[in-house]
Design brief:
Largest sheet: none
Number of helices: 16
Distance between the termini: 13 Å
Shape: globular
Radius of gyration: 21 Å
Length: 445
């Protein structure tokens, strides 16, 4: 594959990063609001934890919609190209988030309010299901393959970037407003801001070119299956299982560290809301910086060693994480969140390149989307829900730590069972389940 000029790859990376940051901002904003606001405004109950559980249930609904979004966007992305589908996903995500900011609460609409909230959350999940695969492929299929891990890690940095902005906006609003004002209208500002961000992202995303690897496949008249997902199931089912397993520790640990910590910190540990939000804010900033570092390291020593380091790391850190939160020291709470996120980055950084290197070009959008998004149901979608339920049932953080360790073990098994993909040529990968033909393995000079 021909190398893309530095200026062009920088533009593609910038467009993907800004787009994913905006979409993750929308998605994570909902998670933070579910922990801090929605339980009171849309699910008012006498028991605060029960209201939080119900709020996180609607949060999980967004994850259920993600595989459907991945299936639909992947189907058309493999047949029509990556770029145009990314524009549609951005508009859907931004529109649904803006409408959440305009919604009446339970006090005004009754039972219709949480139903409407759930419907908009479904649209969010559907849009994000199509966003991730297209964004990482647009970058993975551009540029020098020797630096693919580094470049492809930048759209991944959109996740902590979005979380950073979402948490920062909520922390700022909570700091300058009273609790009553924040619950009455302040939280809406963060959702309405999405409309402005989407316009910026849309303008930038429309200026990038289509993936050269996809264009080369079209020029070779390499046919896409009528239903790319059928081709994925037939030829790449082992690769889908590898991707799903690899996501377990990454997804579970992330939502425990960034979403459940808001519940645990403000209830079990009795910390002020601002303390926990600021800890997540600092941790997300460092996470944003370290993800490309892990991606670059995977270009040097391989995807598997870096990924395994992260999986083992978050499993061990799970038993230090909650005791550090219990100290109620802002410094130690920040250390708990930051170290957890840095270890998570060792999985998330190389993940985009790793997953892209598993699938053939005309099935790649469908393959990475389905593998990535199916795991989100079993992992991230229910992680805060399971963590809150375990805390409620046992009154201890230890079962939550064991839960993270179990996810880490699944990821270690999946990654160990996979092949190293660092030297694969994306334009030469054959549609063969679980393996790539020898001709597809190219040692870069």
């Amino acid at each position: 594959m021909a190398n893309t000029p530095p200026a062009r790859i920088g533009k593609v990376v910038g467009a993907s990063l800004i787009g994913t940051t905006i979409e993750w901002y929308d998605f994570f904003l909902y998670g933070s609001a579910a922990a801090l606001v929605f339980n009171k405004l849309f699910f008012p109950t006498e028991d605060e934890l029960t209201g939080t559980l119900l709020a996180f249930l609607t949060y999980a609904v967004g994850f259920v919609a993600r595989p459907l979004g991945g299936l639909v966007f992947g189907h058309y992305g493999d047949r029509l190209g990556r770029k145009r589908l990314l524009v549609i996903s951005l508009l859907m995500m931004g529109g649904s988030t803006f409408l959440i900011g305009c919604m009446p609460t339970y006090a005004a609409l009754g039972a219709g309010a949480p139903l409407l909230l759930t419907a908009l959350r479904l649209v969010q999940g559907f849009a994000l299901g199509g966003e991730w695969g297209g964004a990482v492929l647009l970058v993975s299929e551009h540029g020098d393959p020797r630096n693919r891990g580094f470049w492809a890690s930048w759209p991944q940095a959109g996740a902590p970037g979005g979380n950073l902005i979402a948490t920062g906006v909520l922390a700022l609003l909570a700091a300058v407003q009273s609790e009553e004002a924040f619950l009455a209208w302040g939280w809406r500002v963060a959702f309405l801001l999405s409309g402005v961000l989407v316009l910026i992202g849309l303008w930038i995303r429309l200026t990038v070119t289509e993936s050269p690897v996809f264009q080369q496949a079209l020029e070779r008249q390499e046919a896409a299956p009528k239903a790319p997902i059928v081709g994925v199931v037939r030829h790449h089912w082992r690769d889908v299982l590898v991707a799903m397993g690899a996501r377990m520790a990454e997804n579970v640990s992330y939502y425990v560290i960034t979403a459940f910590v808001l519940v645990y910190g403000t209830t079990a540990a009795g910390l002020p809301k601002g303390t926990v939000l600021n800890a997540v804010l600092i941790g997300s900033a460092i996470h944003f910086i370290t993800i490309p570092v892990w991606g670059a390291l995977s270009d040097r020593i391989g995807r598997k060693p870096v990924y395994l380091l992260g999986a083992v790391g978050v499993g061990l850190w799970a038993f230090a994480f909650f005791p550090l939160i219990d100290t109620k020291s802002f410094f130690l709470v920040t250390v708990a969140v930051t170290v957890g996120l840095v270890l998570h980055g060792a999985m998330y950084g190389p993940q985009a390149a790793f997953f892209s290197e598993l699938f053939a070009t005309r099935m790649r959008y469908s393959g990475v989307s389905i593998g990535y998004q199916l795991a989100s149901i079993a992992a991230g979608g229910v992680a805060p829900l399971i963590a809150v339920a375990l805390l409620d049932a046992y009154g201890s953080s230890v079962p939550v730590s064991v839960y993270v360790v179990a996810a880490a073990i699944l990821t270690i098994i999946a990654v160990v069972a996979s092949r190293e993909t660092r030297d694969r040529d994306l334009s030469a990968i054959e549609p063969t389940s679980g393996a790539v033909h020898a001709a597809a393995i190219v040692k870069e000079a």
